[in-house]
Amino acid sequence: MKSLFLSLGTLLLIAFYCDAAVLYSTAPVTCCNKFSTFKIPESRVSEIKKTHGSCLRQGFIVKTVTGRRICFKQSDDWVQKPFYRKRISEGSGRKREQW
User: Fold this and answer.
1) Closest residue by Cα to residue 46 from 70, 76, 73
2) Which of 15, 29, 35, 96 could be cross-linked to 52 through a Cys-Cys bond (beta carbons 3.0 to 4.6 Å apart)?
3) For each successive 10 residues of the chain (99 residues), what is the average pLDDT?
4) Which option is the CATH number for 2-91: 3.30.450.20, 3.40.50.720, 2.40.50.40, 3.30.70.980?
5) What are the contacts of 55-63 at 24+ separation with CB within 8 A?
6) What local confidence, expressed as pLDDT, does residue 30 receive?
7) Chemokine interleukin-8-like domain location, by residue (predicted)?
């Protein structure tokens, strides 16, 4: 009887720790260490994302039509406008604008 309780207790303990490991694992996070200072024409931008909240330096990651990813500061106006315009169009239920 003791071995049954010991086995069940061990099994529950293992299940708890395995579940906790999955719960607290994090997805790959992309942060920026350096920021570019030049402006990219909006016609060359295919995607804009904000850096993860856990990053030390907040900014935008811009993906160009050629697949290149470039970091820009969050304070850069030229990258803020298309980012927020895209978010508004996605939230309104309208078809996404191509810019």
Assistant:
1) 70
2) 29
3) 59 41 52 92 90 91 94 90 74 50
4) 2.40.50.40
5) 55/29, 55/31, 56/31, 57/31, 57/32, 57/33, 59/32, 59/35, 61/30, 61/32
6) 84
7) 28-88
